[in-house]
């Protein structure tokens, strides 16, 4: 049964017709159980709209649609160039609706409208275009062996790909996964995060409008324990690509092992940012602020552990706190001057405030923040003050555990060796930043830090052309860049005997 869209008007005046069904086979259909999940505005705690939630039966329907599309000549026999054209069209359609997408991202996620428009949407469109360009430029090799024989390799799609994304960058996370999967000719069932399904469903409308055959791209909303788990367990799914917490990544890996599914995991982090005594202190303070406080601190690569050489510790802390107090204006996601909106959900709000209490009880000093803020109407909204802890030691939970909010810890170190040891004292290894003017030190330390990415005199740079991913418990595999294509294709070797030779 198809489900009609619901007319919505956001607080910034943008109006549209929001699909609320499951996007399967290019149609918006009802969930088999009729169950829905409410999308909430985290600034007001009011329901925006309720969206159908997939059961295991619906997941089965979506996977079968993807399997049929994989074999269909309408998709399978498209040339790389033709696939690329579909993707270019999708990117153009997304760009034409960028204000609508930014509105939706701001409304159900709580991020600021201007950041959604200027950062998330720019990136999402760029990722689809980047991978569209690869469609007809990614192929196998011819390998000479003897005079009579040779072999060639084919790059073939992995098959039906299940993709599971988090709520912190809904559209960006979707495009990071869709871009390389479609470029390589796979078909997809993507599960949105239950907190933020709205932009993904509007993207479904554009997938259809761009001309993708039915079943190539399917979008479902649903709880992780139901829809997510059914996707990971499904025998017709050949690969799972997941972004989310390390705990969920670990359980997905265990489940995927049963059917030996190919996996890519992007999980949590507790990324260090090192400030050496020769660093430009203004730059260090500016990037340290952006590195933890942007996107409400809800960034997997957030540089949430700041390590500062003792000679410049006091100077850095003073400048950093000044930057936090003057830049991190907390407010509604629609206001031009808001830097930090509400946390995405009540669960995240409680989690962040819980960690702030843990830090206080562990004996760390609250240098600024350390509390909830009352900004919304009638005290509503999940607002947290940007919080800086000093007097922290590495055995504290606030040093070791991912908080995923606007909370940072600052420690001092004496030597480069100590800084590297502190940086690597973590189960995680996603990002890391190094502030120094010493060229040799910058590269030496970058090589020694256990992480998938390092920023020198910067934090959070991200580009479709650059591989993204973690080591240790921050993940397996890479997204973005050419490396992202490797996760979505497999190599077949064809041996050719040109005569009757042994
Ligand atoms: P989460 O793991 O609870 O949920 C992420 C997604 O997984 C959601 O779509 C959820 O529905 C689904 N899910 C939950 N349980 C599942 C299960 N048993 N089987 C299948 N799917 C399941 O994470 P979260 O708390 O929503 O997101 C925050 C976490 O995500 C943080 O730890 C953060 O570091 C991480 N994250 C990582 C990256 C990265 O690229 N490394 C990016 C963004 C967020």
From TrEMBL:
Domain Aldehyde dehydrogenase: 28-494
GO molecular function, one term: aldehyde dehydrogenase (NAD+) activity
Keyword Acetylation: no
Active-site residue list: 266
One GO term (biological process): carboxylic acid biosynthetic process
Family assignment from sequence similarity: Belongs to the aldehyde dehydrogenase family.
Identification of the protein by name: Aldehyde dehydrogenase domain-containing protein
């Amino acid at each position: 049964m198809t489900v009609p869209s619901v007319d919505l008007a956001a607080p910034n005046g943008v109006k549209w017709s929001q699909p609320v069904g499951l996007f399967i086979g290019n149609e918006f259909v009802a969930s088999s159980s009729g169950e829905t999940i409410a999308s909430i505005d985290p600034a007001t705690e009011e329901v925006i709209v309720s969206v159908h939630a997939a059961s295991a039966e619906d997941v089965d329907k979506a996977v079968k649609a993807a399997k049929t599309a994989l074999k269909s000549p309408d998709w399978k026999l498209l040339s790389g160039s033709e696939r690329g054209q579909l993707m270019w069209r999708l990117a153009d359609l997304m760009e034409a609706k960028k204000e609508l997408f930014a509105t939706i991202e701001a409304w159900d996620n709580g991020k600021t409208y201007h950041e959604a428009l200027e950062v998330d949407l720019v990136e999402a469109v760029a990722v689809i275009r980047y991978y569209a360009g690869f469609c007809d430029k990614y192929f196998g090799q011819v390998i000479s062996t003897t005079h009579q024989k040779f072999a060639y390799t084919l790059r073939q799609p992995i098959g039906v790909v299940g993709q599971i994304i988090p709520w912190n960058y809904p559209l960006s996370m979707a495009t990071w996964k869709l871009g390389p999967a479609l470029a390589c000719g796979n078909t997809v069932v993507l599960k949105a995060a239950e907190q933020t399904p709205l932009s993904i469903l509007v993207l479904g409308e554009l997938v259809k409008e761009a001309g993708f055959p039915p079943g190539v791209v399917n979008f479902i909303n649903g709880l992780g324990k139901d829809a997510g788990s059914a996707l990971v367990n499904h025998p017709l799914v050949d690969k799972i690509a997941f972004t989310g917490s390390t705990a969920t990544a670990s359980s997905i890996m265990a489940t995927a092992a049963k059917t030996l599914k190919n996996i890519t995991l992007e999980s949590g982090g507790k990324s260090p940012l090192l400030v050496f005594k020769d660093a430009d202190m203004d730059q260090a303070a500016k990037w340290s602020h952006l590195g933890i406080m942007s996107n409400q601190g809800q960034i997997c690569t957030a540089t949430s552990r700041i390590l500062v050489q003792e000679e410049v510790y006091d100077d850095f802390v003073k400048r950093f706190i000044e930057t936090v107090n003057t830049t991190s204006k907390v407010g509604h996601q629609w206001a031009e001057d808001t830097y930090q909106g509400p946390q995405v959900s009540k669960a995240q709000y409680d989690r962040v405030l819980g960690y702030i209490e843990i830090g206080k009880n562990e004996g760390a000093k609250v240098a600024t923040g350390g509390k909830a803020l009352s900004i919304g109407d009638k005290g509503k909204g999940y607002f947290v003050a940007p919080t800086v802890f000093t007097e922290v030691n590495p055995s504290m939970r606030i040093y070791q555990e991912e908080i995923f909010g606007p909370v940072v810890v600052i420690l001092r170190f004496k030597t480069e060796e100590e800084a590297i040891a502190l940086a690597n004292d973590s189960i995680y290894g996603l990002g890391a930043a190094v502030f120094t003017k010493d060229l040799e030190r910058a590269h030496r330390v970058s090589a020694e830090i256990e992480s998938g990415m390092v920023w020198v005199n910067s934090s959070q740079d991200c580009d479709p052309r650059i591989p993204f991913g973690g080591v240790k418990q921050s993940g397996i595999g890479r997204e973005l860049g050419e490396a992202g294509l490797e996760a979505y294709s497999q190599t077949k070797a064809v041996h050719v005997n040109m005569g009757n030779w042994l």
